Structure formats: structure tokens, C-alpha cells
């Protein structure tokens, strides 16, 4: 599999709100359609959150997840990766309700508690579609996303060991890499580790090229050949950083969760547009894009026939 680049696509997330883009998928039907299109464009992994179909507010409700998960599975072979991060103000039990029911091949797992400030995301919005949006963003100046060592170990036990789910370990800062190294040393987690290094979230490491290199070098020291490296960057840094990751031998994540734009001043009309763009860039660099089957082999996943949907 040397040289194969795994493209992940994060479809809707819990950061952006409906007033920021008319193209952000909200309903189960929109999430399913955009997921299928992203897979057809070249994404091997589809990362999924759910939203209230009426208001677009992030929701942990397993019933909403189950309105789109089977539809996507029936239409594509892509790996479906369900969030355990959820959204602001969800409890740990809230965040785990859907993945424990769905028993996915993969789930995201934030590698530490952190300040998570997205209050500036709506600065340019003049009119809000829904009453929840502006307060949801504003209160993140006081928000701490919680994932203690006990929380991480519990998620790995309940979802990983009990159901065979493997994880996208989300590392927002260099300390998160050391947290993951501790978990590896204590045999809480098992290689190969799919390490998603994340840049540009206020509260995490900044989106500077030297930081990308530092995170990569640190992961190399800590994990050696026991990990698979991937990169995502927020907002305007998305394509620059994923291109750098590809050049450096890494994997990439795009999607409307991470950025609403296709280029400067141009909203992406779909997740598939972003997938197609990064695929085109990577292929122009003579890099090969991994299929879902190849991604499963690289990441040692259990297979789509062993999920709960």
C-alpha cells in the first residue's frame, strides 16, 4: 500500500451552522446524498455527525444517525466513521449513544480535554436562520471539550474492545500525541494508530507549516512504524495543509466540517467538490488514491459486514 493516500471526508460536523452556507448538509437525506457523492469522488472514509433535521443543530440522537447510515452503506463501500466528539454541551453518554448502537468500523476519538473556541466562526453573518446558532457559537469562549484519560480508556473499552471499532485519533496539539503515546504504552490502544493531526482550531495548535512538520516529527519519534498519519486543517488552510501532507507521504481529510470553502471567497457547493479538488491535486503530484478496500487493509478495520446498521 506504499504511496496510497487515504482521503477522509467530514460531511457536516458540529462547528458550522446553517446560516454560514446554504450547502451545509443538515437533513438525513442531505447528509446521505453528500456522503455518497463524496465517496464517488474518491473519499475512502466518510466521517459523520448528525443534525436536527428541522433546525440544523448538532444532535446525538441515534435515531437520526440511523436515518442516513444504512442509506450510505447500501450505496457505497466507503468506511463510515462516526463521531464520539458529538457537539458542544453533549455528555459523554450522549456522544456515545449513536456509535454504541451502530458499532461502526471506525470512530473519531479526541485525545484530550481542551479549550474549543469557535465563537468567531459567525462573525460575517448578518442574519441568522435559527435562534440557536449565535448563542451556540458565542458560549464556546467558556467551553472545555472533555476527554480525560478515563474517558478515553472507557471509549476504547466500550466501543473498541467490545465492538471491534477502530479509531481516528484526533490530535489537536502536541500534548495529544503524548497522551496517545501513553495509551499505547499502557496497551489501552493497539497499532496501527490512525493519527489525525489537526491544525487551526482556536485552543489547539496553529496552522503554520513549521507546526505541521513538528507534529509529524513528534509522531515519528513516539510511534515509529506503528501509526498511519493524516492531516486536516480548518478553514482557509484546508487545501494547503492537505497538499503538504500528501507531499510528505501522509493521508488527508477534507469536508464541510473543516472548511465551507473550495477556494478564496468561493463556497464549496458540496463535500464532493472538496474531495475532487484534493484528489486532483494529489494525482497531479503522481500520488495514488486508496480505495475503501485498501483503506481497510491499511487501518486493519473489521469490515462493513460487521457493523450494526
UniProtKB/TrEMBL annotation:
Q: Which Gene3D superfamilies match?
A: Aldolase class I (3.20.20.70)
Q: Which GO terms describe its molecular function?
A: 3-keto-5-aminohexanoate cleavage activity; metal ion binding
Which cofactors does this gene product need? Zn(2+)
Would the keyword Hydrolase turn up in this protein's UniProt record? no
The record's keywords, sorted A to Z, are: Metal-binding, Transferase, Zinc
Q: Coiled-coil stretches, from where to where?
A: none
Entry keyword annotation includes Transferase: yes
Q: What's a Pfam family this protein contains? A: BKACE
PANTHER family listed in its UniProt record: 3-KETO-5-AMINOHEXANOATE CLEAVAGE ENZYME, 3-KETO-5-AMINOHEXANOATE CLEAVAGE ENZYME-RELATED
Q: What is the designated name of this protein?
A: 3-keto-5-aminohexanoate cleavage protein
Organism of origin is Acidisphaera rubrifaciens HS-AP3
Amino acid at each position: 500500500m506504499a504511496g496510497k493516500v487515504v482521503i477522509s471526508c467530514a460531511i457536516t460536523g458540529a462547528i458550522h451552522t446553517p446560516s454560514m452556507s446554504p450547502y451545509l448538509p443538515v437533513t438525513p437525506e442531505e447528509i446521505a446524498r453528500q456522503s455518497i457523492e463524496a465517496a464517488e469522488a474518491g473519499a475512502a472514509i466518510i466521517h459523520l455527525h448528525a443534525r436536527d433535521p428541522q433546525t440544523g443543530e448538532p444532535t446525538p440522537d441515534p435515531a437520526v444517525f440511523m436515518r442516513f447510515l444504512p442509506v450510505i452503506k447500501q450505496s457505497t463501500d466507503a468506511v463510515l466513521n462516526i463521531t464520539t466528539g458529538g457537539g458542544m454541551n453533549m455528555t459523554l453518554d450522549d456522544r456515545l449513544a449513536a456509535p454504541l448502537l451502530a458499532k461502526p468500523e471506525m470512530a473519531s476519538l479526541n485525545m484530550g480535554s481542551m479549550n474549543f473556541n469557535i465563537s468567531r466562526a459567525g462573525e460575517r453573518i448578518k442574519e441568522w436562520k435559527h435562534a440557536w446558532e449565535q448563542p451556540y457559537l458565542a458560549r464556546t469562549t467558556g467551553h472545555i471539550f472533555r476527554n480525560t484519560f478515563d474517558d478515553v480508556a472507557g471509549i476504547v473499552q466500550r466501543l473498541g474492545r467490545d465492538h471491534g471499532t477502530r479509531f481516528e485519533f484526533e490530535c489537536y496539539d502536541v500534548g495529544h500525541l503524548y497522551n496517545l503515546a501513553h495509551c499505547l504504552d499502557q496497551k489501552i490502544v493497539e497499532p496501527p494508530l490512525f493519527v489525525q493531526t489537526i491544525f487551526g482550531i482556536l485552543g489547539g495548535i496553529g496552522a503554520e507549516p513549521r507546526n505541521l512538520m513538528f507534529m509529524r516529527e513528534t509522531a515519528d519519534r513516539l510511534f515509529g512504524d506503528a501509526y498511519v498519519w493524516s492531516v486536516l486543517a480548518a478553514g482557509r488552510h484546508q487545501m494547503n495543509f492537505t497538499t503538504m501532507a500528501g507531499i510528505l507521504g501522509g493521508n488527508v481529510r477534507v469536508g464541510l466540517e473543516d472548511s465551507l470553502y473550495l477556494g478564496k471567497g468561493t463556497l464549496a457547493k458540496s463535500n464532493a467538490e472538496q474531495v475532487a479538488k484534493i484528489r486532483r491535486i494529489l494525482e497531479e503530484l503522481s500520488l495514488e488514491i486508496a480505495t475503501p478496500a485498501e483503506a481497510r487493509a491499511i487501518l486493519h478495520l473489521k469490515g462493513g459486514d460487521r457493523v450494526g446498521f
